[in-house]
Amino acid sequence: MKILTSAQMKEIDRQAIEGIGIPGPVLMENAGQQIFRFLQTVILPYVDEDKIVILAGRGNNGGDGLVIARHLLNNGMNPRVLLLARKADLRGDAALNLGIAEKIGVDVREIKSEADWSAQKRSLKEASVIVDAIFGTGLTKPAGGLYARAIEDINASAAFKVAVDIPSGLSSDTFEIIGPAVKADVTVTMAAPKIPHVLPPAEEWIGELMIADIGIPPALFDSSELKLEMVEKEDLMMGFRKRKKDSHKGTYGHLFIIAGSLGKTGAAVMAGQAALKTGAGLVTVGTPRSCLPAIAKGMAELMTEGLADSEEGAIAASAIARARTLLKGKDAVLIGPGISTHDSTADFMTKLVPDLKLPVVIDADGLNILAKRPDLLKKLPRPAILTPHPGEFARLVDLPLREVIKRKLELAPAFARKHGVYLVLKGYRTLTCAPDGRTFINPTGNPGMATGGSGDVLSGMIGSLMMQEKDALRAALAAVYLHGLSGDLAAEKIGERALVAGDLIRFLPRAVKTMESEVEA
Predict the structure, then answer these.
(1) How large a percentage of the chain has pLDDT more than 70?
(2) 6-226 has which CATH code?
(3) Model pLDDT for residues 139-197, shown as the tens digit of each residue
(4) Model confidence at 43, in pLDDT bands (50, 70, 90)?
(5) Separation between Cα atoms, residue 128 and residue 56, nearest integer Å
(6) What are the tens digits of pLDDT across the range 148-161?
(7) Cα distances (Å, whole numbers) of residue 110 to 90, 121, 152, 159
């Protein structure tokens, strides 16, 4: 499902109107009617139908509100419209619907000043339902003056709040809070979600999100220029089809994991366990010899190979010859969980990367070594999947963490394009970026997954699915979705606060089974 900016939505509206010939008033009518139907079926049976207040602005969002008011009146209700503008200031389709609404008797009251607002705001305190149709998607600066006062009073009301397209005060081009904004119980957006609908902190102002079909042909959303999407489960089902009866362990690949160091053997164990539980045929963990016993005890099905130790108990540079031998016969390699960033280990990775001919996943300390030795990025094999959390990504791009978080929708796809890699920027609503600039937002997962080792589990899953899928992007998307689903199942059973990375592995079979069951259904 595509996620749009205000400019992209405006262009799609233009194509629908000018290119296809759907009149603008028809789109506005469809929008208002869809929201009215939602109100009629979900909310109005439980509230006082004479205490419905619609806050309307002068633009098309206000026009949608006037359509809603007309349908409410036509169905026996008595809505009041508080128009935060002069009636004479409305233009185009909004003016058309104002005229229709007034002719059939909708109560429309002009709010031209703070005094006008003070005289009318009592209706908000008495309202059962407030429909916010003030701004819509075009806002780019903080709401001020009368609008800020109105937003404050809307939020203070105990009424059920429905936002038209986007809560007034949010900008559709950023997930940040740019100023005072309506905190909605439900937001009904037109045709496709926008950025603040799906990413925090703005997402917290949205309430439940509903997407209204207003009659725009789906083909208009197929443009290659629309590069931001929400991952949908239906698009991942191919990877969870029933296995063929004549398959064997070689069918599902042999993953080589280079992981672990003194005090960080758990990272290697969890990556290996996750890879096997996600369906890898074979998994071998290459680790410092001193760490091998601990990792071998972690799971009987894991194979282990000892590599030369450095003085710090990490992989030594001298381990390179053995590692090159172990790469033979493997189908993919995962580098990084718990390997440390000691100089000897960094030298090992510097020598290894140019030799790699296999699909590779780089995580954790592997990423921190890349950040210190950025020339290695040019030597990565293809496909390569990098899986940083925001702190690791900040080191990769050499920018402050605050800036990375603020600009992630810009920086993450730019990095993937520049270096020709797949980038999985982990966190709530994980981003997966392809080398062509496409960016996918993952819908699964919860705050309980913000715990040590969660990323190690994900990297093992990605390495496993990359061998099985033979498609790096589809593997990354499926692994991230499944990882979040496992976390959601775990949180449902044990709660978020107590959740640890091992629980993700424990609930992973159930998550896989959930996906497989839906394929079979």
Answers:
(1) 100
(2) 3.40.50.10260
(3) 889 999 999 999 999 999 999 999 999 999 999 999 999 999 999 999 999 999 999 99
(4) confident
(5) 17
(6) 999 999 999 999 99
(7) 12, 12, 19, 21
Identify the pLDDT of residue 521. Answer: 57
In the chain, where the domains are located: 6-226, 233-237+250-520
Residues 402, 404, 409, 410, CA torsion sign: positive
- What mean pLDDT comes out for the span 340-365? 97
Q: Outline where DSSP puts E strands in 280-390.
A: 282-288, 303-307, 332-335, 360-362, 384-386
Question: Measured between alpha carbons, how far is residue 60 from residues 29, 57, 64, 151 in Å?
Answer: 11, 8, 6, 18
Q: How far is CA 468 from the centre of its chain?
A: 24
Closest CA to 298 of 275, 326, 265: 265
| CA distances, 141 to each of 53, 135, 151, 177, 335 (Å) | 25, 11, 15, 10, 44
User: For residues 99 and 119, what is the distance between their CA atoms, to the nearest angstrom?
Assistant: 24
Total-model pTM: 0.94
Phi, psi of 40, deg, nearest 5: -65, -40
**The pLDDT of residue 352:** 97
Q: Are domains 6-226 and 233-237+250-520 of this chain identical in fold? A: no
Fold of 233-237+250-520: UDP-N-acetylmuramoyl-L-alanine:D-glutamate ligase (3.40.1190)
